[in-house]
């Protein structure tokens, strides 16, 4: 049977990959097998009002409440709850030293405003003049972000936001405020972050895979932490949607460096063992961020999801999770970008389909090594359970390295 695919994204990389497989494009009202949808389309499809019920041969690229992972305030709330739950269980993962988590300290200190305003002020007063970064909870691409180092600036923002309450269209937004990573690792004097792709095929049991070909996104202006440059977003924000408007932006390489080249750079400057440890920490961070949302995600066998992880590395080579994106950009800014994103979509489709190549939700979603492509298995709880049942405790499990 021919596979029918549907998409509401105007992205040639999705259509080209589906057509290359001989699939037929149809409209949302037609019978489809795979729907590569925007988050709003997915939400309306899963809403109670839609009354839509998917059959066994249909798949869609978002979980119903993916926003538990990708809304900045909800991600922070879920990670904090995950830590508390592990603490109550007496789990050593939640061990603390001097009020800091030893193993789960991978997000900067963060509060949600306006709800946590008083707690934030208390924290701020422990280190006055420290820099904090404000982000709207539900926006993306660097929109609405600013830095503060004085409470007076926050109070001014709050007053202006309160004025907007009189205009419903400008109603007060929910923001997160996080301690700014003031000591980012620099290359060529410039700040950068990592964009990594993680595909989840199931949350219960958890099955997640990391794509090998992520990239670094660089600022166009050299890093300067002085108060005078606090408002210069070309120094502080790595988003391409911000940096492409800078005078120093180079359209040829798009301010991007591959993860492979970052590895080579770090191995030559910091050593192989330290570099390996950094990437192990990144895998640890990703797995535990997924475990943090695992209890609240509405698991659905028809769903899979590709998340875009944004991670900053500080100059001590500690990775920090900044945010997770539900619809990481599929727009290509360079030739290398186009190759990477084409391969990403191709590999995702191979990953989520059973060996028959035809969608079937009854499949156990245990992926053969041949179907992984450039994905690496991070965790598959089905395979962990199988190993434990077989009593194979001494095997160097290729299925789950981060127990």
UniProtKB/TrEMBL annotation:
Q: From the UniProt record, list the reaction(s) this protein catalyses.
A: (L-glutamyl)(n)-gamma-L-glutamyl-L-glutamyl-[protein] + L-glutamate + ATP = (L-glutamyl)(n+1)-gamma-L-glutamyl-L-glutamyl-[protein] + ADP + phosphate + H(+)
GO-annotated biological processes: microtubule cytoskeleton organization
Cellular localization per UniProt: Cytoplasm, Cytoskeleton, Cilium basal body
Keywords from the named record: ATP-binding, Cell projection, Cilium, Cytoplasm, Cytoskeleton, Ligase, Microtubule, Nucleotide-binding
The organism's superkingdom is given as: Eukaryota
Q: Where are the transmembrane segments?
A: none
Q: Name one GO molecular function term.
A: ATP binding
For this UniProt entry, what's an example GO CC term? ciliary basal body
Per UniProt, subunit arrangement is: Part of the neuronal tubulin polyglutamylase complex which contains TPGS1, TPGS2, TTLL1, LRRC49 and NICN1. Interacts with PCM1, CSTPP1 and LRRC49.
Family per UniProt? Belongs to the tubulin polyglutamylase family.
Q: What is this protein called?
A: Polyglutamylase complex subunit TTLL1
UniProt source species: Aquatica leii
């Amino acid at each position: 049977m021919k596979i029918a695919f549907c998409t509401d994204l105007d992205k040639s990389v999705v259509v080209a990959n589906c057509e290359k497989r001989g699939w037929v494009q149809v409209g949302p009202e037609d019978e489809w097998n795979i729907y590569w949808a925007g988050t709003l389309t997915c939400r309306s499809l899963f809403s109670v009002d839609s009354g839509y019920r998917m059959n066994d041969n249909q798949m869609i690229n978002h979980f119903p409440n993916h926003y538990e992972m990708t809304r900045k305030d909800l991600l922070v709330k879920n990670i904090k709850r995950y830590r508390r739950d592990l603490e109550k269980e007496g789990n050593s993962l939640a061990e603390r030293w001097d009020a800091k988590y030893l193993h789960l300290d991978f997000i900067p200190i963060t509060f949600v405003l306006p709800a946590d305003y008083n707690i934030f002020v208390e924290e701020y007063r422990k280190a006055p003049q420290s820099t904090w970064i404000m982000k709207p909870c539900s926006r993306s691409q660097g929109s609405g972000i600013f830095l503060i180092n004085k409470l007076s600036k926050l109070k001014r923002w709050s007053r202006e936001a309160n004025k907007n309450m009189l205009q419903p269209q400008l109603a007060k937004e929910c923001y997160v405020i996080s301690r700014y990573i003031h000591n980012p690792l620099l290359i060529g004097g410039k700040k950068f972050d990592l964009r990594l792709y993680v595909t989840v095929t199931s949350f219960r049991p958890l099955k997640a895979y990391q794509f090998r070909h992520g990239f670094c996104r660089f600022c166009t202006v050299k890093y300067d932490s002085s108060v005078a440059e606090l408002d210069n977003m070309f120094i502080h924000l790595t988003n391409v949607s911000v940096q492409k408007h800078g005078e120093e932006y180079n359209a040829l390489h798009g301010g991007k460096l591959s993860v492979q080249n970052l590895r080579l750079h770090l191995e030559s400057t910091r050593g192989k063992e330290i570099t390996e440890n950094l990437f192990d920490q990144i895998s640890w961070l990703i797995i535990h961020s997924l475990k943090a949302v695992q209890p609240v995600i509405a698991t659905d066998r028809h769903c899979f999801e590709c998340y875009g992880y944004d991670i900053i590395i500080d100059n001590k080579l500690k990775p920090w999770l900044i945010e997770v994106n539900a619809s990481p950009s599929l727009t290509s800014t360079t030739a290398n970008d186009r190759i990477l994103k084409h391969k990403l979509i191709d590999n995702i489709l191979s990953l989520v389909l059973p060996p028959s190549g035809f969608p079937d939700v009854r499949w156990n979603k245990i992926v053969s090594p041949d179907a992984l492509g450039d994905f690496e298995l991070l965790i598959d709880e089905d395979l962990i359970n199988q190993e434990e049942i077989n009593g194979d405790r001494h095997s160097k499990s290729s299925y789950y390295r981060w127990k």
